[in-house]
Amino acid sequence: MANTSPQVLYLRLGDETQLWLFDDMFKDLCSQIDANYSTIHAKSVADAQRMLLLPSLKVILVVDGGITIGKQHMALQKQLSAHATRGSTVLFCALFSGWVSPPNLARMFRSFGLSWEFGSYHRSTFYLSQKTNMKAVHLKNTPIDSRIYVPLEQSRTQSGVFAPSAVDQQQSPAVFSKHGSGWIGYIGDVNNEGASQALTMALL
Predict the structure, then answer these.
(1) What does pLDDT average to over the chain?
(2) 1, pLDDT greater than 50
(3) Packing angle, helices 194-203 and 27-36, rounded to 10
(4) Which one, 16, 21, 99, 111, has least CB within 10 Å?
């Protein structure tokens, strides 16, 4: 029987450190994805541009911050946006949030036509249908209906160094938004926690 599962592209344009960390930290997540989908890896712009033309490609996982660095990636950013517009899911996850600078993140999302920006960085408890706890880089300026996890009024930052403080109610550590006929997603967890692995699988 033919495999009708969507093809998943791991977009990996980061430096050698990011490539190694992804292989080391995300073995379990990759095993889950690889067991359920046909997967391919792009570690250069040329590979990415070629693979984005594959008709079977439905999900692109941007797993590090490489795509946000340098003018050589600007055209590829626009290709990703166009791919989502045509019906694909582009999910920024894994190492991405911990290896991107605020200006580069904002600049890239502007190329997608989005106003999303770098928000707070902290651990707290968030809620969907049940509560979850994660340390994450949050996004601000996202539509309310795109926020997967949201803090409640009683949510506080959690740190072994700093005193607890109120969490910005307008920011979210995980976002999933309609983009043309497809979707753009973001998971800001920096520690590869179990809830984030489950969320990644759910968004594929």
Answers:
(1) 91
(2) no
(3) 30
(4) 16
